[in-house]
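Intended use. Records like the one below are meant for learning the mapping from a protein sequence to its folded structure. Do not use them to infer anything beyond what is encoded.
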Amino acid sequence: MTTWPRLPTRRAVLRAAGAALPLASIARAAQAPAVRASRPTDIRVVDVMHAFEGHTYRAPYMFGGRSVDRVTILNVQVRVRTGDGKEAFGFGSMTLGNAWAFPKASQDEGLGAMTALAEAFRAITAACDDQGHPIDLWRVLEPAYLQEAAALGPRRGLAMPIPKLCTLVVASAFDAAIHDAYGKAFGLSSYATYSSRHMRHDLSRDLGPAFAGQYLDRHVAVAPRAETPVFHSVGASDAIEPSDLKVRLDDGLPNTLAEWIARDGLTHFKIKLNGGNEAQDFDRITRIDRVVREAMTARRIADWHYLLDFNEGCPNVGYLLTLLRKVREFTPDGFARIKYVEQPTSRDLAGDRANVMHEASKLLPVVVDEGLVDIESLHLARAMGYTGVALKACKGQSQALLIAAAAQQAGMFLCVQDLTCPGASLIHSAGIAARVPGNAGIEANARQFVPSASAAWEPRFPGLFTVRNGVMRTGQLTGPGLGAVPPGPRLA
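Structure written out for the chain above:
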């Protein structure tokens, strides 16, 4: 249950954020000029609230050698005012996936840092006096968020800096709430506000001169596609067959991969691999291929697909190449069904330059995920042979759309992944997946591991939280803003 705290006055926010405000001012001066003159299509932030809710997983989810069994969700509500005086509320939500975003910290350290960042980001966001489109505000807020994160680590006695990815995950709920409020202020889907009619600047401001005269509406559709294929995540410890079960959960949901296929009519599968043990990874891929093949033969389905996600687990690119070639030799048809490989080696691209993906990309698209935190890292990934990008709502609506535009223009492979996103965060993620041209599909694993977190949302979005025939019904995501209105009462 979400409990919204009472919001202090703007004056109190400005006093409380005294330490953060100079950082925001410095960031504005260095990164983007402040916007003071108002247009009718501009907004400014008036109020900001945030709250947390917690849920326990029905079963642990293992990825990249880490096991997760609970989630803390950050919910953010903002009130904005347009240039001609209209006001609107916006809502954003995101899983604080510290095990993924801050893996070198302990559970308590990582989650504690992220909740502390949320407190600080609320004050910074509330104190922002700039006006414009949500992407204008993101240009001002992101540097301030990053500076606050750099200062927060030492204050909390952390042994390592707070990663940029961790900062983006926390900031994404605030960014989503601002985009949501902007659309609602004008009675439009947020995706109808990415043209020159609403945006102050074209994409050259963020992506360089090659994008002069282009706006996001050239790269992101206003209308969502009716259905989007769902990649079912097979966690590294998930039961593939009944013999893998240690304890059967009697909660009405499937327990094995074959049971999930039968219930949801699955056709797309995300295979989580730990890396570091070639025989083990090979066995897992080929076992899953066998179980899926048997299920598809019984259903008379000829078209299905896999993706391989190592979460940085491969010790080097040679490991990946050997494994892929072995799979191709053993099951040529199974190999042909692999659509792409996701983040096989370290997210630290600059520190891992030896592990280039040029040879691997000749076999399959290789997608950058954890290593993709800004436009500069996109350029570096391309130089290292990565040929695709994983777009994620948890890195921010603004960044996801800008990277989608840059990746499309570069001819890169596109997919949308989640962070075990339930409720409003899945609606947000699905909205991106349904509008980016060429997107291969969406991961949506909260329905597998933490369905309780979506229970209040599910009746209002039939077919979004429950998959049928392997697809999510995304055509319904046409409401104002990003489409997520909390089921409970709004704090006015």
